[in-house]
Amino acid sequence: MGKLYAVKVGRNIGVYDTWKECENEVKGFKGAKFKKVDSRDEGLEYINSKEPVIVVEIKTEESVDNMTDEEIVAYITSGYAVAFTDGSYKDSEQAYTYGLVMIDNVNLKYDTAYAKRNHELYLVSRNVSGEVFAVIEAIQYSISHNYEKLLICHDYEGIPKWISGEWEAKTKISELLLIIYKKYCDIIKIEFRKIKAHSGNRFNELADSLAEKAYSKSKKTTLKYGKNFVVFNNFSDKQFDELFSNISTDMHEISVEDRSDKDKKCYVLSYDRERLFVTYYNTKRKTLMIQGNQERLFFVLLDNIILNSDENIRTILSEVFKFSVNTSKLNEECTSLIPN
Fold this sequence. Notes:
RNA-DNA hybrid ribonuclease activity; alpha+beta; 3 domains; Double Stranded RNA Binding Domain; EC 3.1.26.4; Nucleotidyltransferase, domain 5; 37% helix; Ribonuclease HI, Chain A; elongated
């Protein structure tokens, strides 16, 4: 007989044959408690038992600076999935990120995940919040892939100590970690191992780089257009500043009038009888608006945007305006506007 699932607290208490049945009874149910069991008798015993004492297996010796590939393989052959987690925080972003590396095969091929978040409840805990979310992601990954054992290799020593009770969970992020752990500790056996940061372990370094990569993970630029305007959303302020730096440096024949105020950056570009109004709103939508007739100045500006932007912007502009964007064309247009 395969594994069964006992629901101690949920919509309907009982022992269920499949995870799907169990999930239907506990998913979205506040305070749900359930456990994977070997028999109906074990399930009924769990349902009728008092709250168990949480026992956490922790390996956090100060001498543990690294973890060899051979050790990882040994865990995997014993039925474990192995996770490497890391978190980061930047004041300039007002956000925390996480990086996660999941290994579940002896060839040490891996899956990765990373994300950037800024929930105000957890910002105060900075990079620790990022690593906790990496741990949560690792637990959810392991359960969804039917693993019964998980080894989490982490940087921050407080993660297992909050769970074991050695440290009191006083912050919102530590409380969240305890909630998630208590919810799943009867479904999957979780062990923790502290890995010293930047000690040379390639998977730990990868988790660190993924947490950093999450800061650059941004929404794709979208575009709206009409006969006399183009509007970009998710156009970064860095892209906008670089655009006008190029114009000011290379195109001396273009007159630039600054009409910016506290709410927006606004410039009027003039060349001969052509005029363009360029406005940038550094709000959540990060909107760039270009207004003016589709004449030479209009397309010179678009060419600059395309050549200094990502593939997504190049593709949508080329499709919308039906012209091939290349360096020689930009040079030809710019030459007529730049004095010898």
